[in-house]
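Onboarding guide, step 5: your first structure request.
Type a short instruction followed by the sequence, for example:

Predict the 3D structure of this protein.
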Amino acid sequence: MSQDLSWAKSIPAKKRALILPGGGGRGAYQVGVAKAMQEVGLEFEMAFGTSIGALNAALIAQGGIKRLEELWCSIKPWDIFKLPSASQIGRIFLGRKLGLLDNSPLEQVMLREADLQKLKASKTKVGLITTDLCCLETRLIMTDSIMSTSELIDVLMATSALPIAFPPRQIHGSGLWVDGGLVRNTPMQAAIDMGAEEIFMVLLHPETVNVCPTNMWQLIARCLDIVLDASARKELELAQLYNRLIAEGAQEAVGMRSVRIEVIQPRKPVNTTLLEIDPDRSKRLIQQGYEDAMDHLMRLYQKTEAKAS
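The system replies with structure tokens like these:
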């Protein structure tokens, strides 16, 4: 899409954080948003991701938006997971396998695409969220602290381990780490604690939903949507409370400063569930994210210009 982007230069530079929560097959939407931001020249000092948002954040930070778009436009469900074999089904019923699906194909994708050295060299510091089923701890892991490719893969597989569907992952040989989105799908507080002045959060559920689930997979996906949506709303409410306290003078006591929060999410219904991945649908989601982001950034620019005048 060819257009004049000179207006973007007027958006004031701030210490920015990008937050990419989970949402499975809808993650392609985030790629379109990131593509628009890159085109207008928005840079991020920090990026925090959970589940598919964590995988997107890592590949974006290592400079791979174009490659990430190529992946989403070609990848199919069997490139991410496969149904369990007869022996694996037996292990599931015996309690020796804690996931209904085999996500080893996703691990092969991450082994091929994730680059720890590029991540460490990136100007964007990346934080990944995962939760331990053993002690209920939710942990923010910065990629700067990761020391090997195998450790990076463990963390990426852990944060994307959708409970029940995918098996949990050990980190450093301990725990049962899974998708952190059930607790902190939008790790906004981490961004605030690390000094973000402006936060762009890219949600993957539409503003309104009015479609009833028609099968068991859709029912499970909708239940997870409820959990993820509640997590996002809680983070937003906390951030709004933070800004309200500052407006009332709390910064004088504790040295806080206000944070501008920009939320970009699908304005139209998203016709896909967490485990539905289809190249044509992903292309449409990327385009939808791109258009929504461009519209949002244009309105942000216009608001900035109005305040300046």
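Each response can be followed by summary notes, for example: Strands lie at 16-20, 46-50, 125-132, 138-142, 169-171, 174-179, 198-202, 260-264.
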